[in-house]
From TrEMBL:
Transmembrane helix is among the record's keywords: yes
Species per Swiss-Prot/TrEMBL record: Pelomonas candidula
Sequence intervals crossing the membrane: 23-44, 50-73, 94-114, 120-136, 141-159, 179-203, 284-304, 316-334, 372-389, 448-466
Keywords: Membrane, Transmembrane, Transmembrane helix
Superkingdom per UniProt: Bacteria
Protein name: Uncharacterized protein
Length: 485
C-alpha cells in the first residue's frame, strides 16, 4: 500500500534524527537564531529588519528543499519503484507540491527584500528554476559543478556582453505576457523535476547506487572517516589513479627497505593509521587540484583575453578559503582517522621495533604534527602568494587561526578519544572558522595588524606544543586509540 503524502514528506525529519547529528543541528540553529535576533535588535530601520528576516527564511527554505529532495530520492529505490503500485507517482507528486510551495514562498520573500522594486513573476521563475537545478545536482555530481561554478564564470568570460542580444530578446517576449510565460515555464520545469526520479530501469539502478555511495561517503566524512574521490564514479577513479599509484609505490619502497627500527616501523604504520589522510595522498591530491586549477585558469585567460589580476582580486577570499580547507585539513582530520583504524592498530602494536608507552605517544604525535605543520607551511606560502596578487593581508588570518587550533587538536591523548560524532568532528572546524572570522575582521579594519598576529600565533603555538609534548609522556599508550574512552 502506497504511503500517504504526509508520511512521505515526514520521512525526511525521521531520517535526520537517526544520523547522530542532533546536537550539531541544535547548536547550529541556536547560534543562527541568536545572531538573527541580535542583528534585528541593533538595526535602526524597520525595512532592514524585514529584509534580514526574509533573507534568513529564504536560506532556511532552501535547506528544507534540499532535505526533502534527499529523502524523496532515497525513497525512490529501484525495487520498490517497480513493485509498489503508485509509489513513483506519489513521490513525483509530493516533490512537485513541495517545490511549488517552497519556490513560491522564496519568490515572495525575495520580492519583499527588494521592497517590491522588481516584479514578482521573474522572481518566482528564478526560485523555481533554482529548485529544479538543485534537484538535478542530486541526480549526478557533474550537475553540481555546472550549477555552482557556472555563475562565477559570467563576469570573467564576459558572458553578460556576449549574451546581451539574446537576453534582451527574451525580456521583450516575457514582458508581453509575463504570467502566461511563467505558467508555461513552470510546466516545463515541473516536467524536468519529475525526470529526476527513476522508474526502476538500469539507469535508475546506476544513479541510485551512485547517490547511495556518495551519501555514505558524506555521512562517514561527518565522523572523520574520509572517503576517496573514487566515490565520484569513473571520473573519480581516473583522477584518483595517481594517488593510488603513488601510495602503492611508497608502500613497495617501505617494504623493500623494512627494518625493525622505530623510523621504519612508524613509516609503515602511518599508511594504516591515516588511510586516505596519509601525507602522500594529501600531497598528491593537492598538487593535482592546483595543477588543474592553474591549467584551467591559464587556458581561460588566453582564450578569452581575461586579466588574471582582476579575477584574482575579486575571487581571492573564496580561493583562500578553498586553500585553507584543503591545506589545513590534517590538523582537524588526522586524529579522527585513528578511531577508524583502531582494528588495525591492535596488530600494529605487535610489530617488531614498534615503540611502546610514552615513546609510542610521541611517535604517533610526531607523525601527525609533521604532516600538519608541513601542510600549514605550504598552504601559508600559497596564501602569501595570493596575498601579493590580491593585496589582501587579511587572507593570512586563516593561517593564524589554524596553527594553534591544529596543534591543540593533535596533541590530545588518542587512548581517551571517544567515537567521533558529527558534532564532535565539527567542533574544532567551527572553532577554526569562528576564530578566522574574528581575525579577518580585525586584520581587514586595522592596517598592519596581520603580521603581529602571525607572530603571536607562532609563539602561542610553540608554547602549546612544548607543554602538550611533556604531557604525552604521562598519557596512556596511544594505540589502540579510544580503548579508555
Amino acid at each position: 500500500m502506497t504511503a500517504s503524502y504526509n508520511q512521505i514528506l515526514l520521512a525526511a525529519w525521521r531520517q535526520s534524527n537517526t544520523d547522530g547529528s542532533r546536537w550539531f543541528r541544535i547548536v547550529f540553529y541556536s547560534v543562527v537564531l541568536v545572531g538573527l535576533a541580535v542583528a534585528v535588535w541593533f538595526m535602526p530601520v524597520m525595512q532592514m529588519r524585514i529584509a534580514l528576516v526574509c533573507a534568513v527564511l529564504v536560506f532556511a527554505l532552501f535547506g528544507l528543499w534540499v532535505l526533502l529532495l534527499v529523502s524523496l530520492l532515497e525513497q525512490n529505490h529501484p525495487t520498490t519503484t517497480r513493485l509498489v503500485p503508485g509509489q513513483l507517482r506519489r513521490l513525483r507528486q509530493a516533490a512537485l507540491v513541495a517545490w511549488l510551495l517552497i519556490s513560491g514562498a522564496q519568490g515572495v520573500l525575495v520580492w519583499l527584500i527588494l521592497a517590491e522594486r522588481v516584479p514578482l513573476a521573474p522572481l518566482l521563475l528564478a526560485a523555481a528554476a533554482a529548485g529544479v537545478g538543485v534537484a538535478w545536482t542530486q541526480r549526478h555530481w557533474i550537475w553540481a559543478i555546472v550549477l555552482y561554478t557556472g555563475p562565477s564564470l559570467i563576469t570573467p568570460l564576459h558572458l553578460q556582453q556576449r549574451l546581451a542580444p539574446l537576453w534582451h530578446a527574451l525580456v521583450d517576449v516575457w514582458q508581453l505576457q509575463p504570467w502566461a510565460w511563467l505558467a508555461l515555464s513552470l510546466v516545463v520545469l515541473g516536467a524536468l523535476l519529475t525526470q529526476v526520479f527513476g522508474s526502476g530501469d538500469a539507469a535508475h539502478h546506476a544513479a541510485y547506487e551512485r547517490r547511495r555511495r556518495m551519501l555514505r561517503a558524506a555521512r562517514n566524512g561527518m565522523t572523520g572517516n574520509r572517503a576517496g574521490i573514487a566515490n565520484l564514479g569513473r571520473a573519480g577513479e581516473w583522477f584518483a589513479w595517481p594517488v593510488d599509484a603513488g601510495v602503492s609505490r611508497w608502500l613497495s619502497h617501505l617494504l623493500a627497505r623494512a627494518q625493525p627500527t622505530q623510523a621504519s616501523v612508524m613509516a609503515r604504520a602511518e599508511l594504516a593509521l591515516h588511510g586516505l589522510q596519509h601525507w602522500l595522498s594529501h600531497s598528491v591530491s593537492m598538487a593535482l587540484t592546483l595543477a588543474c586549477v592553474v591549467l584551467g585558469g591559464t587556458m581561460t585567460f588566453r582564450l578569452f583575453g581575461i586579466s588574471p589580476g582582476a579575477m584574482f582580486k575579486g575571487m581571492a577570499p573564496a580561493i583562500a578559503i578553498g586553500l585553507g580547507i584543503a591545506g589545513f585539513n590534517p590538523g582537524f582530520g588526522l586524529r579522527n582517522m585513528l578511531w577508524h583504524t583502531r582494528r588495525e592498530q591492535a596488530l600494529l602494536v605487535l610489530l617488531p621495533g614498534m615503540p611502546q608507552g610514552p615513546q609510542l605517544n610521541r611517535a604517533v604525535a610526531f607523525l601527525q604534527l609533521r604532516h600538519f605543520l608541513l601542510a600549514w607551511l605550504a598552504t601559508t606560502l600559497l596564501l602569501v602568494g595570493l596575498l601579493m596578487l590580491a593585496g589582501m593581508p587579511s587572507l593570512l588570518s586563516l593561517s593564524i587561526a589554524a596553527l594553534p587550533l591544529g596543534i591543540l587538536n593533535l596533541t590530545n591523548a588518542p587512548a581517551r578519544m571517544r567515537a567521533p560524532t558529527p558534532w564532535a568532528t565539527s567542533r574544532p572546524v567551527l572553532g577554526f572558522f569562528l576564530a578566522y572570522s574574528v581575525l579577518w575582521a580585525l586584520c581587514a579594519f586595522v592596517d598592519g595588524l596581520v603580521w603581529p598576529l602571525m607572530a603571536a600565533s607562532v609563539v602561542l603555538s610553540t608554547v602549546l606544543l612544548a607543554r602538550r609534548w611533556r604531557t604525552l609522556s604521562q598519557a596512556p599508550s596511544a594505540l589502540p586509540a579510544g580503548r579508555l574512552a
